[in-house]
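Researcher: We're teaching a course module on how sequence relates to structure. For the next exercise, students receive a sequence and then see the predicted structure as C-alpha coordinates, so they can try to spot secondary structure elements on their own. Here is the exercise chain.
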Amino acid sequence: MAVTDLAVPHREEARPARRPVPRLRRERRLAALFLAPTAALLLVLIAWPLVSVGWQSFRYVNLVDPTATGFAGLDNFRTVLDDEAFVPALVNTVIWTVLSVAGEYALGLASALALAQPVRGRALFRAVIVVPWVIPIVIAGLNWMWLLNPDYGILNAWMVDLGILDAPRDWLGGLDTALLTVTFVNVWRSFPFYTISLLAALLAVPRDLHEAAAMDGAGTIRRFFVITLPHLRTVSFTLIFIHVVWTAINFDFIWVMTQGGPLDASQTLPIMIYQSAMEDFDVGAASALASMSMSFMATVFFVYFYAVRAKGAR
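Model: And here is the predicted structure for the students to work with:
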Protein backbone atom coordinates (compact mmCIF):
# COMPACT_ATOMS: atom_id res chain seq x y z
CA MET A 1 0.00 0.00 0.00
CA ALA A 2 1.37 3.32 -1.04
CA VAL A 3 2.16 5.88 1.53
CA THR A 4 -0.18 8.31 -0.17
CA ASP A 5 -3.11 5.94 0.44
CA LEU A 6 -2.85 6.31 4.23
CA ALA A 7 -5.73 8.27 5.67
CA VAL A 8 -4.65 11.37 7.48
CA PRO A 9 -6.96 12.04 10.42
CA HIS A 10 -8.63 15.42 10.36
CA ARG A 11 -7.48 17.60 13.26
CA GLU A 12 -10.00 20.09 14.46
CA GLU A 13 -8.65 23.51 15.18
CA ALA A 14 -8.42 23.92 18.97
CA ARG A 15 -10.27 26.86 20.46
CA PRO A 16 -8.25 29.16 22.64
CA ALA A 17 -9.00 28.30 26.26
CA ARG A 18 -9.99 31.04 28.69
CA ARG A 19 -7.07 32.11 30.79
CA PRO A 20 -7.78 31.10 34.34
CA VAL A 21 -7.77 33.91 36.84
CA PRO A 22 -4.46 33.76 38.67
CA ARG A 23 -4.73 32.38 42.16
CA LEU A 24 -3.11 35.43 43.69
CA ARG A 25 -5.70 37.69 42.06
CA ARG A 26 -8.56 35.56 43.36
CA GLU A 27 -7.09 35.64 46.85
CA ARG A 28 -6.77 39.42 46.69
CA ARG A 29 -10.39 39.78 45.65
CA LEU A 30 -11.48 37.50 48.48
CA ALA A 31 -9.36 39.43 50.97
CA ALA A 32 -10.84 42.72 49.75
CA LEU A 33 -14.33 41.28 50.16
CA PHE A 34 -13.64 40.31 53.77
CA LEU A 35 -11.94 43.62 54.56
CA ALA A 36 -14.69 45.77 53.06
CA PRO A 37 -16.94 45.80 56.19
CA THR A 38 -13.99 46.69 58.42
CA ALA A 39 -12.85 49.40 56.02
CA ALA A 40 -16.36 50.86 55.95
CA LEU A 41 -16.51 50.83 59.76
CA LEU A 42 -13.13 52.55 60.04
CA LEU A 43 -14.24 55.10 57.47
CA VAL A 44 -17.29 55.97 59.56
CA LEU A 45 -15.63 55.86 63.00
CA ILE A 46 -12.22 57.35 62.19
CA ALA A 47 -11.99 59.02 58.80
CA TRP A 48 -15.20 61.04 59.06
CA PRO A 49 -14.46 62.43 62.58
CA LEU A 50 -10.95 63.41 61.44
CA VAL A 51 -12.31 65.23 58.41
CA SER A 52 -14.97 66.88 60.59
CA VAL A 53 -12.39 68.11 63.10
CA GLY A 54 -10.21 69.45 60.31
CA TRP A 55 -13.18 71.28 58.77
CA GLN A 56 -14.36 72.76 62.08
CA SER A 57 -10.88 74.05 62.86
CA PHE A 58 -11.35 76.58 60.04
CA ARG A 59 -14.85 77.64 61.06
CA TYR A 60 -16.44 79.55 63.91
CA VAL A 61 -18.27 76.94 66.00
CA ASN A 62 -19.62 77.74 69.46
CA LEU A 63 -22.05 75.51 71.34
CA VAL A 64 -23.82 78.39 73.13
CA ASP A 65 -23.54 81.17 70.57
CA PRO A 66 -25.53 80.38 67.41
CA THR A 67 -24.30 83.59 65.78
CA ALA A 68 -20.72 82.30 65.80
CA THR A 69 -20.64 80.69 62.38
CA GLY A 70 -18.91 81.01 59.05
CA PHE A 71 -15.39 80.57 57.75
CA ALA A 72 -12.74 81.53 60.32
CA GLY A 73 -9.58 81.03 58.32
CA LEU A 74 -6.67 80.82 60.74
CA ASP A 75 -8.42 82.68 63.57
CA ASN A 76 -8.96 79.52 65.62
CA PHE A 77 -5.27 78.67 65.38
CA ARG A 78 -4.36 82.22 66.44
CA THR A 79 -6.73 81.88 69.40
CA VAL A 80 -4.95 78.71 70.49
CA LEU A 81 -1.44 80.11 70.04
CA ASP A 82 -2.33 83.36 71.83
CA ASP A 83 -3.77 81.48 74.81
CA GLU A 84 -1.46 81.84 77.82
CA ALA A 85 -2.17 78.23 78.77
CA PHE A 86 -0.95 76.79 75.45
CA VAL A 87 2.82 76.86 75.99
CA PRO A 88 2.66 75.48 79.58
CA ALA A 89 0.28 72.75 78.38
CA LEU A 90 2.65 71.89 75.53
CA VAL A 91 5.61 71.72 77.92
CA ASN A 92 3.60 69.56 80.33
CA THR A 93 2.66 67.24 77.47
CA VAL A 94 6.31 66.81 76.50
CA ILE A 95 7.37 66.18 80.12
CA TRP A 96 4.48 63.79 80.71
CA THR A 97 5.21 61.85 77.50
CA VAL A 98 9.00 61.65 77.78
CA LEU A 99 9.09 60.71 81.47
CA SER A 100 6.26 58.19 81.10
CA VAL A 101 7.75 56.40 78.09
CA ALA A 102 11.29 56.43 79.54
CA GLY A 103 10.11 55.13 82.91
CA GLU A 104 7.89 52.47 81.36
CA TYR A 105 10.67 51.20 79.12
CA ALA A 106 13.30 51.15 81.87
CA LEU A 107 11.04 49.36 84.35
CA GLY A 108 9.66 47.04 81.68
CA LEU A 109 13.14 46.05 80.49
CA ALA A 110 14.39 45.48 84.05
CA SER A 111 11.40 43.31 84.94
CA ALA A 112 11.64 41.40 81.65
CA LEU A 113 15.30 40.61 82.30
CA ALA A 114 14.42 39.42 85.80
CA LEU A 115 11.54 37.24 84.60
CA ALA A 116 13.72 35.70 81.89
CA GLN A 117 15.98 34.15 84.51
CA PRO A 118 15.47 30.45 85.33
CA VAL A 119 14.17 30.87 88.89
CA ARG A 120 11.45 29.04 90.75
CA GLY A 121 8.01 30.60 90.62
CA ARG A 122 8.69 32.75 87.57
CA ALA A 123 5.41 31.64 85.98
CA LEU A 124 3.57 33.09 88.99
CA PHE A 125 5.56 36.32 88.82
CA ARG A 126 4.82 36.62 85.09
CA ALA A 127 1.11 36.36 85.83
CA VAL A 128 1.14 38.77 88.77
CA ILE A 129 3.10 41.48 86.98
CA VAL A 130 0.29 41.91 84.45
CA VAL A 131 -2.19 42.98 87.16
CA PRO A 132 -1.56 46.76 86.90
CA TRP A 133 -2.12 46.64 83.15
CA VAL A 134 -5.53 44.98 83.38
CA ILE A 135 -6.86 47.44 85.97
CA PRO A 136 -9.06 50.07 84.26
CA ILE A 137 -7.52 53.53 84.19
CA VAL A 138 -10.34 55.14 86.17
CA ILE A 139 -10.12 52.50 88.93
CA ALA A 140 -6.34 52.76 89.07
CA GLY A 141 -6.51 56.55 89.28
CA LEU A 142 -9.11 56.56 92.04
CA ASN A 143 -7.15 53.95 94.05
CA TRP A 144 -3.96 55.98 93.85
CA MET A 145 -5.85 59.13 94.84
CA TRP A 146 -6.94 57.29 97.98
CA LEU A 147 -3.43 55.96 98.66
CA LEU A 148 -1.88 59.42 98.25
CA ASN A 149 -4.52 61.39 100.13
CA PRO A 150 -2.82 63.66 102.71
CA ASP A 151 -5.52 63.06 105.33
CA TYR A 152 -6.09 59.30 105.25
CA GLY A 153 -3.77 57.98 102.53
CA ILE A 154 -1.85 54.90 103.61
CA LEU A 155 1.29 55.79 101.65
CA ASN A 156 1.62 59.15 103.39
CA ALA A 157 1.18 57.42 106.75
CA TRP A 158 3.90 54.88 105.93
CA MET A 159 6.35 57.55 104.75
CA VAL A 160 5.78 59.53 107.94
CA ASP A 161 6.26 56.42 110.11
CA LEU A 162 9.48 55.53 108.27
CA GLY A 163 10.83 59.06 108.68
CA ILE A 164 10.81 59.83 104.95
CA LEU A 165 8.38 62.71 105.50
CA ASP A 166 7.94 64.96 108.51
CA ALA A 167 4.24 65.40 107.72
CA PRO A 168 1.78 64.06 105.14
CA ARG A 169 2.11 65.72 101.75
CA ASP A 170 -0.55 66.53 99.19
CA TRP A 171 1.17 64.96 96.21
CA LEU A 172 -1.65 65.67 93.76
CA GLY A 173 -2.28 69.17 95.09
CA GLY A 174 1.26 70.53 94.85
CA LEU A 175 2.31 72.68 91.91
CA ASP A 176 5.68 70.93 91.73
CA THR A 177 4.48 67.36 92.37
CA ALA A 178 1.09 66.94 90.66
CA LEU A 179 2.36 66.15 87.15
CA LEU A 180 5.22 63.97 88.40
CA THR A 181 2.85 62.01 90.64
CA VAL A 182 0.42 61.29 87.82
CA THR A 183 3.39 60.33 85.63
CA PHE A 184 4.54 57.85 88.28
CA VAL A 185 1.08 56.27 88.43
CA ASN A 186 0.98 56.05 84.64
CA VAL A 187 4.37 54.30 84.62
CA TRP A 188 3.15 51.87 87.28
CA ARG A 189 0.13 50.91 85.22
CA SER A 190 1.74 50.77 81.77
CA PHE A 191 5.12 49.10 82.31
CA PRO A 192 3.69 45.52 82.26
CA PHE A 193 2.90 45.99 78.56
CA TYR A 194 6.62 46.58 77.98
CA THR A 195 7.48 43.65 80.21
CA ILE A 196 5.39 41.18 78.24
CA SER A 197 6.63 42.38 74.86
CA LEU A 198 10.30 42.59 75.83
CA LEU A 199 10.16 39.24 77.63
CA ALA A 200 8.88 37.56 74.46
CA ALA A 201 11.76 39.10 72.51
CA LEU A 202 14.28 38.06 75.18
CA LEU A 203 13.14 34.45 75.10
CA ALA A 204 13.60 34.46 71.32
CA VAL A 205 17.31 35.33 71.56
CA PRO A 206 19.33 32.17 70.74
CA ARG A 207 21.11 30.85 73.82
CA ASP A 208 23.98 29.69 71.61
CA LEU A 209 25.02 33.31 71.09
CA HIS A 210 25.30 33.93 74.83
CA GLU A 211 27.15 30.66 75.39
CA ALA A 212 29.61 31.37 72.59
CA ALA A 213 30.21 34.91 73.85
CA ALA A 214 30.73 33.63 77.39
CA MET A 215 33.29 31.13 76.13
CA ASP A 216 35.11 34.00 74.41
CA GLY A 217 35.32 35.82 77.73
CA ALA A 218 32.45 38.28 77.37
CA GLY A 219 30.89 39.24 80.68
CA THR A 220 27.22 39.72 81.48
CA ILE A 221 27.19 43.45 80.78
CA ARG A 222 29.03 43.09 77.47
CA ARG A 223 26.70 40.29 76.36
CA PHE A 224 23.74 42.48 77.23
CA PHE A 225 24.91 45.38 75.05
CA VAL A 226 26.34 43.30 72.20
CA ILE A 227 23.76 40.49 71.96
CA THR A 228 20.60 41.25 73.93
CA LEU A 229 19.97 44.90 73.06
CA PRO A 230 20.43 44.47 69.28
CA HIS A 231 17.82 41.69 69.32
CA LEU A 232 15.44 44.00 71.21
CA ARG A 233 15.88 46.93 68.84
CA THR A 234 12.86 46.31 66.62
CA VAL A 235 10.38 45.56 69.40
CA SER A 236 11.77 48.45 71.46
CA PHE A 237 11.34 50.89 68.60
CA THR A 238 7.77 49.75 68.03
CA LEU A 239 6.88 49.92 71.73
CA ILE A 240 8.31 53.40 72.12
CA PHE A 241 6.48 54.66 69.03
CA ILE A 242 3.14 53.24 70.16
CA HIS A 243 3.46 54.59 73.67
CA VAL A 244 4.61 58.04 72.59
CA VAL A 245 1.33 58.35 70.69
CA TRP A 246 -0.78 56.74 73.43
CA THR A 247 0.75 58.87 76.18
CA ALA A 248 0.68 62.17 74.33
CA ILE A 249 -3.06 61.84 73.67
CA ASN A 250 -3.90 60.29 77.05
CA PHE A 251 -6.77 62.08 78.75
CA ASP A 252 -8.08 59.66 81.36
CA PHE A 253 -5.34 59.49 83.97
CA ILE A 254 -4.74 63.21 84.36
CA TRP A 255 -8.43 64.08 84.27
CA VAL A 256 -9.34 61.47 86.88
CA MET A 257 -6.55 62.39 89.27
CA THR A 258 -6.06 66.17 88.91
CA GLN A 259 -8.30 67.49 86.09
CA GLY A 260 -5.26 69.44 84.94
CA GLY A 261 -4.75 71.21 88.27
CA PRO A 262 -3.77 72.65 90.54
CA LEU A 263 -3.70 75.96 88.63
CA ASP A 264 -3.09 74.09 85.35
CA ALA A 265 0.12 72.58 86.76
CA SER A 266 -0.72 69.21 85.19
CA GLN A 267 -2.70 70.46 82.20
CA THR A 268 -1.74 68.78 78.93
CA LEU A 269 -2.99 69.34 75.39
CA PRO A 270 -5.79 66.72 75.58
CA ILE A 271 -7.05 68.36 78.79
CA MET A 272 -6.90 71.76 77.11
CA ILE A 273 -8.87 70.45 74.12
CA TYR A 274 -11.57 69.10 76.43
CA GLN A 275 -11.80 72.32 78.41
CA SER A 276 -11.99 74.44 75.26
CA ALA A 277 -14.84 72.37 73.85
CA MET A 278 -16.81 71.35 76.94
CA GLU A 279 -16.18 74.22 79.37
CA ASP A 280 -15.56 77.21 77.09
CA PHE A 281 -17.83 75.75 74.35
CA ASP A 282 -15.40 76.96 71.68
CA VAL A 283 -15.46 73.95 69.37
CA GLY A 284 -13.56 75.81 66.66
CA ALA A 285 -10.54 76.47 68.90
CA ALA A 286 -10.71 72.94 70.31
CA SER A 287 -10.74 71.52 66.77
CA ALA A 288 -7.78 73.70 65.81
CA LEU A 289 -5.78 72.43 68.78
CA ALA A 290 -6.81 68.86 67.98
CA SER A 291 -5.68 69.35 64.37
CA MET A 292 -2.30 70.60 65.58
CA SER A 293 -1.98 67.54 67.82
CA MET A 294 -2.91 65.24 64.94
CA SER A 295 -0.27 66.87 62.76
CA PHE A 296 2.33 66.11 65.39
CA MET A 297 1.16 62.49 65.62
CA ALA A 298 1.28 62.18 61.84
CA THR A 299 4.86 63.46 61.89
CA VAL A 300 5.82 60.89 64.51
CA PHE A 301 4.17 58.16 62.43
CA PHE A 302 6.02 59.09 59.23
CA VAL A 303 9.34 59.24 61.08
CA TYR A 304 8.65 55.76 62.45
CA PHE A 305 7.49 54.47 59.04
CA TYR A 306 10.56 55.70 57.17
CA ALA A 307 12.90 54.53 59.91
CA VAL A 308 11.45 51.01 59.73
CA ARG A 309 11.51 51.12 55.94
CA ALA A 310 15.14 52.25 55.89
CA LYS A 311 16.09 49.51 58.32
CA GLY A 312 14.34 46.89 56.16
CA ALA A 313 16.20 48.10 53.09
CA ARG A 314 19.59 47.61 54.76
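Model: If you want an answer key for the exercise: The radius of gyration is 30 Å. The longest helix spans residues 23-56.
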